[in-house]
Amino acid sequence: MKKIIILLTIVFATPMAQAEKVFSLGVVPQQSASSLAKVWVPLAMFLSTKTGENIRFATAPTIPEFEKRVAAGRYDIVYLNPYHYTLFSKSIGLRAIARQKDKRIQGIIVVASDSEISNLAMLEKAEIAFPAPAAFAATVLPQANLTLRNVAFTPRYVSSHDSVYAAVAKGLFVAGGGIVRTLSTLPKALSNKLKIIWRSEGYTPHAFAVSSTISPETAVKIQNALVSLNEQEEGKNILSKLGFNTGIVKSTDSDWDDVRALNIKIIKQ
User: Fold this and answer.
1) Residue 194, CB half-sphere, CA atoms under 13 Å: how many?
2) Is the model's pLDDT at 5 over the cut of 50?
3) 263 versus 94: which is more confidently predicted?
4) 231: helix, strand or coil
C-alpha cells in the first residue's frame, strides 16, 4: 500500500507542479480585450507549443492600468511601447528579446474622412482624442509636434486606440492620435471613415521583453520561437493577424536608444 501511495505521488504530483507554472504574456491594451485576444491568444498558443512552456495571453482594461501591472511585475513576457520599454527596463529590469522586423513606429493624427481639416494648424483649440498620456506614438509624439507648432489643443484620454478611432469616426472629436498598425487592423467599415493628416518620424517599435525572473535559457527559447513565426504557414497567419507582416527579429536593449534620446519624462519613477 505504501509503494502505491509513493507511486501515485510521483505520477500525479509532477504534472500538477508543471501545470501550475504559467507564464503570462502581457500585451499593451491598444485595442479592446476581445480584439486583442483574437490575435494574441493564437500567438501565446504557438509559443507554448514551440517552447514547451505554458504561456497565456493577458492584458489590462486601460493603458494606465497596464503600466501599473508592468511596474508591479505582473507579467513574465511583455509586449509594450518603446517609451514603456525604456522606462521599465531601467526600473524593474525588463530585457528586450525581439521586435517587429524592418519596422519604424510612426504616430499619426486622424480626422473623419469627410473633414475639411488637412493639417495640424487647423486643429487650433480643438479637443483631440488620445489613448493615454504615456502612449508613445499615439499620444506623446502627436502632442509634442502640436506643441512644437504652437497649436493650442485640449487632450481627451479615451483608454485605447480603438476608442480613439471610433470617437473620431462618430464625430465626438475632430481628431485623434494613433499608429499606422492599429489603424490598418480596423474593420474597413470603420477605417474608411478616417483619414491621416499627419505622420511622425519613425522610431524603434514596440518591444517583446521578458521579466528579470525569466531565466536566460527560457528567454532564448521564447526569442527563437518568435523569430521562427515567419518560417511556417501557421506562424505567417499569426503574424498577418497581428499586423506584423514583415516578421519578428531578435533585439537588444540598445535598439531603443533612439527613444531614450528623446528624454521623455511622463511617468514618475
Assistant:
1) 32
2) no
3) 94
4) helix
The count of other CB atoms within 10 Å of the CB of residue 36 is 21
**Which three-class secondary structure state does DSSP give residue 116?**
coil
- Spatial distance between the Cα atoms of 86 and 91, rounded to a whole number of angstroms: 9
Secondary structure percentages of the chain, helix, strand, coil, to 5: 45, 20, 30
Closest residue by Cα to residue 201 from 262, 155, 150, 252: 262
Closest CA to 94 of 209, 205, 206: 209
Grid coordinates belonging to 235: 506562424
C-alpha atoms less than 13 angstroms from C-alpha of 178 in its C-beta half-sphere: 28
C-alpha cell, 234 = 501557421
Which of 32, 76, 63 lies closest to 222 in space, CA to CA? 76
Alpha-carbon gap, residue 53 to 56, rounded angstroms: 10
Q: How many residues does the chain have?
A: 269
CA distance 223 to 213: 15
Q: Which residues pair with 23 in a beta bridge?
A: 55
What integer pLDDT is reported at residue 269 of this predicted model?
A: 56
Structural domains in the chain? 19-103+204-260 (3.40.190.10), 107-199 (3.40.190.10)
